[in-house]
Each structure stands twice: as C-alpha cells, then as structure tokens.
Amino acid sequence: xxxxxxxxxxxxxxxxxxxxxxxAAKPLALSYFRTPLDIIxxxxxxxxxxxxxxxxxxMRDMIEARFPTHGIYGEEMxxxxxxxxxxxxxxxxxxxxxxxxxxxxxxxxxxxYREAPFCGLIDVPATGERWHARPGQTLFAGKPSVTSGCxxxxxxxxxxxxxxxxxxxxxxxxxxxxxxxxxxxxxxDCYIYGLLAxxxxxxxxxxGLQPYDYMALVPVVEGAGGCITDWxxxxxxxxSTGQVLASATPTLHEAALKLIA
Length: 261
Fold this sequence. Notes:
- InterPro entries: His_9_proposed, Inositol_monoP_metal-BS, Inositol_monoP_superfamily, Inositol_monophosphatase-like.
- This is Histidinol-phosphatase.
- By secondary structure, the protein is an alpha+beta fold.
- The protein has helices at 8-32, 50-66, 95-99, 170-180, 191-197, 211-214, 217-223, 250-260, and strands at 39-41, 47-49, 71-74, 78-80, 85-93, 106-113, 116-124, 129-134, 137-140, 143-144, 157-160, 183-186, 203-206, 227-229, 244-247.
- The protein has two domains: 2-135, Fructose-1,6-Bisphosphatase, subunit A, domain 1 (Fructose-1,6-Bisphosphatase, Chain A, domain 1, 2-Layer Sandwich), CATH 3.30.540; 153-260, D-Maltodextrin-Binding Protein, domain 2.
- The protein has an eight-stranded mixed beta sheet, sandwiched between helices. A five-stranded mixed beta sheet has the order 12-11-13-15-14, sandwiched between helices. A two-stranded antiparallel sheet has the order 1-2.
C-alpha cells in the first residue's frame, strides 16, 4: 500500500488537520441550515447553495495556506493539481437533505496519496457526530468504531439513500440485495456509512456517486473493519464509476458481490 511510505507522524498531522477543517466547516454549515437559501441547479441537476460554496472556499483557503503543494478536488470549485497528495472535499454531502431541513447531511474530507484515500472524515454538524479514520482505525466520539460482524443476509440491515438513484439493470441488483436482507431502510447520504462503521447497519448499496461523495467513506468503513468497493469488488478511486457497495464484514461483502453480479 502506498500509505506505508508516509511516516506515522505525518499521518497524525494530516488527520488532525482534517479535523481542523471540519471544525471550521461546522459553524458555517449550521449558520445556513434551515434558513432561506438561493438554490441553483448544476449541470447534473443536483442543487447547490451558497452554503456549499462558502464552506468549500473556507476549507480550500486553509489547505492552500497549510499545505500549498497539495492538490484539491472539491465538489463546487473543481480540481487544483498538486503533488502526490490531494484533498477531496464535499462541503455538504446530502444537499437535498440540507435544503429540506433534514439534519443528516454531512461534510466529507479525505486525503489521498497517489490517488488512494488513507485518511477520511464524516462530520454531521446538526447532530454533533463525527467519524474520522487513519490507516487501520476509525474513531467515533474518541473511541474505536467497529462494524457489527454480521456475515449473513438473514441478519443484515440494509440502507441506501434513495431507491430512485438506481436505473436500468441496477434496479434488479438493488432489489435482490435489499430484499435478501433482514430489513431495509432509506435516507441518510454519508450518515449511513457512519452507521455501518459503528455497527448499526450492515449493508449499503448506492450508485451515481462522485469521488467527493465516496473517497472519505473508504478509510472510515475500512478502519472500522468493514469492506467498501465498487460493484465488481474493485477498490474505489477517483476513476471509479460511482457504484458503491459497503459491508460490515469480508464474508458478507463477498456474498453481496456474488448476489448483485
């Protein structure tokens, strides 16, 4: 793994800085939450607000001041090329939730090294919850976060943000996996991956995601003992298609991959 080339002291520095970014983003997000907002439709028809842009600009300014050689890949302001490190930012993951007053939106921050994410963070401003991960460990409320250990569909709890995201042949895969699980629930965007990392659900299937939607999720899920890949079982990268499967255990993940293949 490329991460092995990074001194542990540097990993600590980057993880701490990711938390600093989230600390700066949180009050900005809350200052706009449940207030009248100008909503603009992007080319992909997803809504963007002044809050998204304000938060991303704040984080980008902080990164450029602290690590001027690092690249930045943000949802709202595009890509700034840099060295082997790139920060991937989603200021408000779950913008539709945000603009409708639903509190389970989050800020996603990850740092990649040679395009592989090695530290990541899910911050949920409205609830005060945060998962942050470094190689081999995910923390929640200062304590290690661990997946449920579920290995079979008969006990699995399934989540997806919305059934509407699945199109064409993807609908069959979604129906097969969600119906095989013990129960299925909807909504939550990045929050459901935090729930998986803390052992409260066992399977997440989604599609149509962008790198800024999933790169921060990879260290969080893996650091808690779970698995997260594309639908073919390949590691997620900035070049992935946006089909994401996350599972509590390798055994459950392998079974899920076979079912949706």
